[in-house]
């Protein structure tokens, strides 16, 4: 498999082969994407008709890359007489590439440099699931540029490619016939602009007052400020430091300005498949990173409140008070061939919205945002009671309103087969997964605090606390499987146990819904041989009929899942177990260049000796990136209490000493220092 290289700026990214070429292949995400649309599907460079091969790749930052190339087969690399440098970067919603040809001979030389250019203007969903297009495409050739475009009714997209040096421009690309002096160089710069056009020819983003991306030195300075504002980490175990620094840079790259709030930034979910607003991922990432980079949380909360559900809409699975789970900008969403415009098919997002709002105030002291979003938070809590309690039994259930194109599962394990019985059967709808009850419990308790301290409504606070306690008692009775001493993955439509052994019960510890007496059994399962691979907790335990170490939610290991599990274990006093998970997951990241992967295979560590990649994983991915930060918070025992930050380290031996300096919060800036436990 060829290595893929990428540059990005939020939801704008370019993904190519390791020689810089983007080659059209329907299931491949190769190309230049802006707001869910592929504006380049072919970008192929040849010299004298020969393909180019990489000698070296330099990636100084997330938005720029340099490729060193030579023509011909790899056997020709020795004493190459010509080489090419491809410098590329993303800025201001444009993709720019500077081509430099170097003549290494003692004589002037002539070359024919060719760049093939094409665009299928496919929405990202069409890349995954190809379909017949209804587009009316066109091409316009100018002296110094090529424009590719398509129209479908009022939907109009265009790609414009310009060059700084003279070229023969045709419908399929540009050709340069150049002469380079001995030991000399020749260079040109190609700029690819993405145009989102209205019928009058104006760019939609400009009409909305959107600032597009940043340019050149702005991106560099912005990244420097972002890194300087974050806490500084020093650790005796280098892998933690490496993953932390890589995580900060990846978070910076995942920031984008949503169209509805063009002067603010939030986090896109991941590249390439989820480079858009995903409510669940945005909330969980903000939660994980609050002690480190809290600025994106306020934007996320405001945007999600702005788009909160107000009506019953079966197509979008919308209900009053419900928080969106996904928003897409591409053609399929615009023409309602997919419901993501926006889509509300996530039963967990709404309670998690309240969880983040409370956690944000605990860390930042920003009570004004809590007051500003009171109506949205109350509507979210009401949704849990009114629309989430489908069966009227006090549990949070889900079923899809959109029977044609809606998601089957409305929890974080949203693949069709993820919620299953131990014997492999799939339950009917509605379903009540166990972690949803934990989120609802936590949301009510946190909502009660907000009502009492900020909304001036103690009666409402009392009611929420009573509901939370009743849910906890009922849940520990109804979801507990006595024979195996673990919590059921879900309740089926008849109220029976969906009895697969899954990682979801680790989220129950994070939410606090588990009775103290049952926590030790849950911890034993999570760290037992069926669940723990040596690198982390599997999504589904071995021995379950549908277990597959390469199954998306059926046996892979997800770092964000593990970070929540570790935080839950620490909450219930299982500090050694939390440390084991943190060490395994951070160790695994070193096999991915220090970048925390979205997921990886669930093979036993003793079998493979290294974590096996999941082939279709997003990279970088927001919740995975955020997991490093929540794991670090768990190891140091960081908790805000009023105006104070409490530090209670519980650090495994391998980490040695951890110093986290200048932690931002309502207290200003504070340091946290911890040493590994002394074992005898």
UniProtKB/TrEMBL annotation:
Transmembrane segments: none annotated. InterPro entries: 6-hairpin_glycosidase_sf, 6hp_glycosidase-like_sf, GDE_N_bis, MGH1-like_GH. Residues 8-190 form the Putative glycogen debranching enzyme N-terminal domain. Residues 434-591 form the Mannosylglycerate hydrolase MGH1-like glycoside hydrolase domain. It comes from the Bacteria. This is Amylo-alpha-1,6-glucosidase. It comes from Micromonospora fiedleri.
